Amino acid sequence: MKCAIFRTIILTAILTGATLVHPGQTGGMQGQMFAGESLTYEGRVSKLKVSISVAELAFAAVAKPDSDELVLKTLAVSKGTLLKMFRYSFLQQYESTIDLANFRILKTTKHDVQKERIRDSEALFDYGEKRVRYVETDPTDRNRPPRRIASEISEPLYDMVSSIYYVRTQQLAVGKSFDLTVSDSGLVFKVPVVVTAREQQKSTLGNLWCFRVEPQIFGTNRLIEQRGKMVIWMTDDARRIPVRAQINTSFGKIDIKLKSVTKQS
Prior knowledge:
The structure is a single chain. This protein is mainly beta. It is built from 4 helices and 14 strands. It has a 14-stranded antiparallel β-sheet with strand order 8-7-6-5-4-3-2-1-14-13-12-11-10-9. Strand 2 and strand 3 (69-78) form a beta hairpin. It is globular, with a radius of gyration of 18 Å.
């Protein structure tokens, strides 16, 4: 599997753990409670009965003063074992700006480093014109023409992080299903989501009952055009904390586990 696909798989799994949610509230009223929350995760890859730590991730939700906007800041950093095992390293800084009044994505920016390759990008969402405009540049080569993509959009629309905020606003129950429209790198995808079970999970917060949520991100015309399966466990309580995510792929199993949760007033 190509390095870019490997990085996308890890980050997609981790980005699902960016927020805490109390169900039964909607829009800006709910979004304000995210402000000040930080979560950290560790990603491990298992293959041939060997499990190694390959990534560390951190998330922070920051409310913009005097506005109805929330900024989600994500930092994903590979660990040395990833470089040794796959000859691959990455660093990604990811920011999502959400309009809380309508609960939709306004802007996504990325700083993406994959070994020697560096890319900066910005996606702007214009709901009046019903278009997302994506521009990617190489900061190491100012003579390189920007990569531009424009796609038609509709509402509601999310990026990878804000889509999970929406999932956590839902009253989850076994058997419930719904579709999300998600934009990544200027493209737009439909992501079916199914709640398949209620299970206990051991976590840093204790042994908790969780909903087993399965976003269908793998397959033809999906976010990742590869064979695989993704599962997220979110606590069955008012907090809806994603304590674990697991992805099975052709090269091994990726396990993402919560390390810590903090809240600043």
